[in-house]
Amino acid sequence: MSFVTRRALSTLIPPKVASPSGIGAAQDAVRMQRVVSFYEKLPRGAAPDVKPSGLLGRYQARYFGKNPSAMPFVHLIAGLVAIGYAQNYYFHLRHHKNNPH
Questions:
Q1: CB 22 within 8 A of CB 28
Q2: Which pLDDT value is given to residue 79?
Q3: 46-81: per-residue pLDDT in tens?
Q4: Which contiguous run of DSSP H or E holds residue 38?
Q5: More confident residue, 97 or 25
């Protein structure tokens, strides 16, 4: 039998996870006890909700979280109006402050 055929057949046959010689060995029992004790210490149930931190995290939690709202659109429009007015003032209105035409 060629190597390729043996390799193909070995993937179909499951490995010997619990062989009779491996069950009675004390070192395997100790190792399994460590694995079991590790998994016993893990928390059960759903993970607690993570409290958002930072300015962007709190903003996303407030407006995009469980109860999404349209306030980000209002904030965007207000920000664009403020930026537009600031640009209009800088490039045009400040020249008319003391010298009306």
A1: yes
A2: 98
A3: 888 889 999 999 999 999 988 899 999 999 999 999
A4: helix 26-41
A5: 97
Locate 43 and state its tokens. 């928390």
Whether residue 28 has pLDDT greater than 80: no
What letter does residue 71 receive in the DSSP assignment? Answer: H
**Would you say 69 and 63 are in contact if contact means Cβ atoms under 8 Å apart?**
yes
Q: What does the alpha-carbon distance between residue 37 and residue 30 come to, in Å, rounded to a whole number?
A: 11
Handedness of CA 33, 19, 5, 11 (dihedral sign): negative
Dist. CA 32–CA 57, nearest whole Å: 42
Those residues with Cβ within 8 angstroms of residue 88's Cβ, 6 or more apart along the chain or in another chain:
none
Residues found in the chain: 101
Q: How far apart are the first and last CA of the chain?
A: 100
**Smallest Cα–Cα separation from 75: which of 66, 88, 87, 62?**
62
| 62 close to 54: Cβ distance less than 8 angstroms | no
